[in-house]
Amino acid sequence: MTSPSTEYALSLLASLADAGVRDVVLSPGSRSQALALAAAEFEIAGRLSVHVRIDERSGGFLALGLAAETGVPSVVITTSGTAVANLHPAVLEAHHSGVPMIVVSADRPSEMRGIGSNQTTVQPGLFASAVGWVRDVEAPRSGPVDHEAVRTLAREAVAEALGGDSHGALGRSRGPVQLNVAFREPLSSGEQSLPAAHPAPVEVAPPVAPSALEVDVDPATLVVAGHAAGPEAEAAARALGAPLVAEVSSGARFGPHLVSSYRALLDDADFGGRVRRVVVFGHPTLSRQIPSLLTRDGVEVVVVRAAGAEAYDPGRSARVVEAVEVDRASSGVGSTDDAAHRTWVGRWVHTGRRLLEAEAEAEAESEDAADGPGADGTAEGSAGRTEAAEQAEFLRREVQLLRRPVTRRALAEALWRVSWPHDRLVLGASRLIRELDQIVPGKKIPVHANRGLAGIDGTIATATGIALASQRDDPAAGTTRVLVGDLTLLHDVGSMLLGLGETRPRLQVVVGNDGGGTIFDGLEVAATASPEAMTRVQFTPHEVDLSALAVAYGWQYVEAATRAELDQALVARYDGPVLIEVPLSR
Ligand SMILES: Cc1ncc(C[n+]2csc(CCOP(=O)(O)OP(=O)(O)O)c2C)c(N)n1
Ligand SMILES: [Mg+2]
C-alpha cells in the first residue's frame, strides 16, 4: 500500500513534469522524503532531471542557474525548518532578476504547527514579497488522491512562475513561487507507481500586440542596455540612429553602434552632456554614470520593462513601457541615415574606440617600463640591426610578454578572447565584472551574472546550473567559465561539493585571487580611514590554500600565474570541473 504522502508526491511531480518542468533540485530530509523518493523514480523513468545537494543554499542557486539557462521553472524541494530559509538568497535573486523557480517546501500538518514541534516554523510567507504566489497545501489524507486538483495546482504554480495567470496571459514578471506542502505520518512508502505521463507544457505568451511606445528618432538619444537587455536593445539603437551603451552581461554588446569606454564619454560634456533622451533596456548596475545621467534635469527617460520585479527608474520619473517602436516618419530629419544621426553615432563610436586603444597602450607602456630598460626593444634603437637580430628581439619580447604576471585587464581580455557563442560566461559580482565591462569589445557571447541583487553568494552554484543545463540540452555547447574574486569563491565554496552520482559539470571556475575584497580599496573612505581597520573589516584578508580546497572536493586545479599559463589553462581539455587560480596583486 502506498501512503497518502507518497501518492500525493507522485501526483505532484507527474503534474509538474507534464506542465513542462525539467529540473528538480533537492536536499535530504525527513519531512520531504515522499517528494525526494518520488523524484528519484521520475529520474529513472527519464521524466525529470534530479540534482541532489546537501546544502539548500547551494541547491537554491543551482535551481536559479538551471532556470536561467533553460527559461523553464526549476523545482527546488526542501524539508521543513531552517532548510527552507536557506533558499532565501536565491529566491531574492530570482525575484529581482525575473528567473522562474518553484519552491516546494515540506511542512508539518496544521495540528503540529505553533506548539513548538521539532523543526517547525511558519513557512508560508517566509519569503514575504519575494514570491508572487504562495499556496499552503493541507496534508494529504487517506483515500485516493484528487489528481485533477493536483494537476490544476501544479499548472498554476508553473504559470505563475512564468509570470502568467492560469489563462496563460503574461501578466507580471517571471519569478519564484512557493508551494508549501504538509505531510503527516507515514511520511512515505517504498512502493511507487508512477502516474502515466500526459505532457502538456504550460505556455505563457506575451499579449499578441504588446503596448509599444512610438518614439521618433529625435532628440539626441542614447540607448542603454543593462543586464539581460537582450538583442532588442541593439536593434533599437540602430533603428533610432543612437549610440549603444551595453553592459557586459546585457546580451546586446555587439553591433555597429556599440560604444567603448562609455564611462569616460558619459562624463564628458561634449558627449554625455548632449544627451536629451535615454531609452533603457535591461537592468544597468555596473557604473555610477548611468544612474547619474538618468536623474539629470532635461533628460527624458524611457524604460522598457525588463525581467525582474522592479522597473529600473533611479529618477522616479521614467516613462515605463512594454516595448518601443521606432517611428521614423514622424521625425523632422526623416531618417536615421541623415548626416546628423551618422555624425552623432559616429562620434561616440570612434571616440570610444580611440579612448580604449589609448588606455590599452598606456597600460602596455607602463608594463614595459616595469620590465626594465631595453625590454621593449627600443633602447638600443633598431637602426643598423640585421634582420635576424630583429627577429630574435621580437621573439624575446613575445616570450617576455607571455611570462608576465596576469593583470586584471589581461585576465578579462583572455577570458573574452577564448569565449565563443557556444560557450557560457558567468561573471561574479565585484571588480572583475567591471573590468570586463570597461574593456572588452563587442562579441556575441552568452554572459550571465546574478545582477538582480549583485550578491557575491551562490555564484559557483549558479554557474553549475548553467553548465549542467547547457551541456544536457545543447549538443554543441562548449565550456562554461565563471570568473570570480577569491571572496566570492570562498563564500560559495560549499557548492564545489558534488556528491557521488551527481553529473559533473563542464565548468571552469577562474578565480582572480588578490587575498581579499580589493573592491573596497576603491571606496572614498579608504583615503582617510585607518589602513589597518580597512584591511581588517573591509578587505577581510585570508590565506586559504585554494589548491587544497580543489583536492578536498575532487576538482582539478591549475595555477595560472603568467599570461601564457592562463591562455593554456583556459583552452585545455579537462575531465570534469576545474579550478583555475590566477594570482593578482592587491
Ligand atoms: C552576499 C553578499 N555579501 C556581501 C557583499 C558585499 N561585497 C561586494 S564585493 C565584496 C568583496 C568581493 O571580493 P572578491 O570576490 O575577492 O572580489 P575583488 O573585489 O577582490 O575582486 C563584498 C563582500 C555582497 N555583494 N554580497
Ligand atoms: Mg579578491
What are the segments in which pLDDT stays under 50 over at least 5 consecutive residues?
A: none
The main pleated sheet reads as: 6 strands, parallel
Strand order of the largest sheet: 2-1-3-4-6-5
Kindly report how far apart the N and C termini lie.
Answer: 64 Å
Globally, the shape reads globular
* Estimated radius of gyration: 27 Å
Give the overall average pLDDT: 93
**Structural category:** alpha/beta
Helix content: 25-40%
What is the beta-strand fraction? 15-25%
- E-strand count: 19
What compounds are bound to the protein? thiamine diphosphate, magnesium ion
Count every helix, treating DSSP H or I runs of 4 or more residues as helices. 18
Quaternary state reads single chain
What this model shows, in words?
Helix content is 35%, strand content 16%. The chain is built from 18 helices and 19 strands. Helix 12 crosses helix 13. It has a six-stranded parallel sheet with strand order 2-1-3-4-6-5, sandwiched between helices. By secondary structure, the protein is α/β, with parallel strands linked by helices. The protein binds thiamine diphosphate and magnesium ion.
List keywords for this structure.
18 helices; binds magnesium ion; six-stranded parallel beta sheet; binds thiamine diphosphate; alpha/beta; 586 residues
Brief overview, please?
This protein is α/β, with parallel strands linked by helices. It is built from 18 helices and 19 strands. It has helices spanning 4-18, 33-44, 56-70, 82-85, 88-97, 147-161, 231-240, 262-267, 289-294, 339-371, 387-402, 408-418, 431-439, 459-473, 486-491, 531-539, 546-552, 563-571; strands at residues 23-26, 49-52, 74-78, 101-107, 134-137, 176-182, 212-216, 221-225, 244-246, 277-281, 300-304, 319-321, 323-327, 424-427, 447-448, 480-485, 507-513, 556-559, 578-583.
